[in-house]
Amino acid sequence: MKQITKTQSLLIWAAGFDNQTAAQCTSSEIRKMTIAGSMVFIPAFLALFSYTYGFYFIFANTYAAIGCGIASAIVLFIIDRSIMAYGRPGSFSFGLVGRIMLAVTVGFLLAEPLILKIFEDSIQEQQFSELSSAKDNTAAPYDSRIATLQDNLAADQKRLYTLQQAYTAEMDGTGGSLIRNQGPIYEQKYQDYQDYQKLYASNQITTAAKIAEIQKQKSDALDMVEHNNADGLIGRMRALSSLGEKEPIVHWTTWLLRIFFTLIELLPLLIKISPAGDRGLYYKLVDMNDVEKEQIFEMSSKERLEFKQQEEKLRLTQAFAELCHKETQIIAGNKEKDSIYLMAKAQELTEKKIDFVGRAIKHIKDEGLLKEVLARFDQIHAGFMSTINQLITKSNSNFSPDKG
User: Fold this and answer.
1) Where are the chain's structural domains?
2) Are 243 and 250 in contact (CB under 8 A)?
3) pLDDT digits 0-9 by tens, 353-362
4) Structure pTM?
5) Degrees (nearest 5) of the Cα angle 127, 131, 134?
6) In degrees rounded to 5, what are phi and psi of residue 217?
7) pLDDT, tens digit, 9 for 90 and up, residues 8-23
8) End-to-end CA distance of the chain, in Å?
């Protein structure tokens, strides 16, 4: 039976294969199964980071995002492993159609957060541009009203200046009647200037109050735009879509990445349904085991009992032999190789033999088979006791009592 490492065992299990059956396969067959298992881990590994990043924009909480990302990766891993464990290479069923549709959907969902991360700088620039445009559009009506009030005030100021020039020219004779004096015409023009100056001062106060009110309304509207600006997952996806419309390279790169991650998600499924001319040793062993189990099931109750007792005999004999072998290795490699230590180990070995004999008597009901098993135990025990006696003799001749 082939010795399988813990890493290989994990990958074989992930690929949906049975470790006990796989242990009977060749090294090349085991390598194929471990590669298939690694294909199952890849989508789940990518999903862990992608979904964690995506959930962070939804919950805005690191721990919640990590928890949801781990849960999503586990669910994806279970789905992929179930597909790998179900059926055989080259087999196809209508259930796989739904799985393909799910894989495409999951592939897109897997790709989207990673795409957002790849184009993060460009997306932030696009969002800033869209926000600035939204603010400008919101502020435009308020700015127009303020500009109208300011224009009216400027016209009033210009009118006031014109009235000032009129009374000044009448006073020094450079305009009006062209007579230098402060007569009735001058007094009338001066009175018009003073009246309009009062009106202008009043208009200044009123206009300033109106502008202040409009500025407040504008500030509130801009704050509302800032508050309503979508900066989460959907907002970034919307910005990415707008960016793709303006820059074709972003559009095509985004779709290439989506297709790439979809194919990664489809890898386990493609491996499973790909036709295989040679099914491999694993499935041949599975068929053989199935045939053996069917034959056992078809046996009579007496034949089945005898078969089970034979299996129990082989299992107990093998377990006892392995235990004795390990005990001897411990004894031979231990630093305390003195007679007392070896004799204690011999006693322990005898106690374990008694334990195995008790288990054999309990499980094996056939007297002839039980005698055969007990005789085999005695033979194995005698062999290992002989080895221990030799070690004791060698210990007495080559080691001192205080040496390790």
Assistant:
1) 6-120+241-283, 141-231, 299-398
2) yes
3) 677 777 667 6
4) 0.50
5) 140
6) -60, -40
7) 889 888 888 888 888 8
8) 37
Tokens of 97: 């159609």
CA geometry: angle 267, 270, 49, nearest 5 deg: 20
Separation of alpha carbons 257 and 268, rounded Å: 19
Q: Which three-class secondary structure string do you get for the chain? A: CCCCCHHHHHHHHHCCCCHHHHCCCCHHHHHHHHHHHHHHHHHHHHHHHHHHHHHHHHHCCHHHHHHHHHHHHHHHHHHHHHHHHCCCCCCCCCHHHHHHHHHHHHHHHHHHHHHHHHCHHHHHHHHHHHHHHHHHHHHHHHHHHHHHHHHHHHHHHHHHHHHHHHHHHHHHCCCCCCCCCCCHHHHHHHHHHHHHHHHHHHHHHHHHHHHHHHHHHHHHHHHHHHHHCCCCHHHHHHHHHHHHHHCHHHHHHHHHHHHHHHHHHHHHHHHHHCCCCCCCHHHHHHHHHHHHHHHHHHCCHHHHHHHHHHHHHHHHHHHHHHHHHHHHHHHHHCCCCCHHHHHHHHHHHHHHHHHHHHHHHHHCCCHHHHHHHHHHHHHHHHHHHHHHHHHHHHHHHHCCCCCC
Q: Which residues of 182-195 are buried (b: 16+ CB within 10 A; e: fewer)?
A: eeebbeebbeebee
Indicate left, alpha or beta for 244 from its phi (over 0: left) and psi (-120 to 50: alpha).
alpha
Between 382 and 71, the higher pLDDT residue: 71
Percent of the chain at pLDDT above 70?
68
> Which one-letter amino acid corresponds to residue 393?
T
DSSP state of 176: T
8 A C-beta contact, residue 93 and residue 87: yes
Tell me how far apart the alpha carbons of residues 15 and 38 are, in angstroms, rounded to a whole number. 8
Q: What phi and psi, each to the nearest 5 degrees, are found at residue 61?
A: -140, 125
Strands (E) across 66-216 are located at none
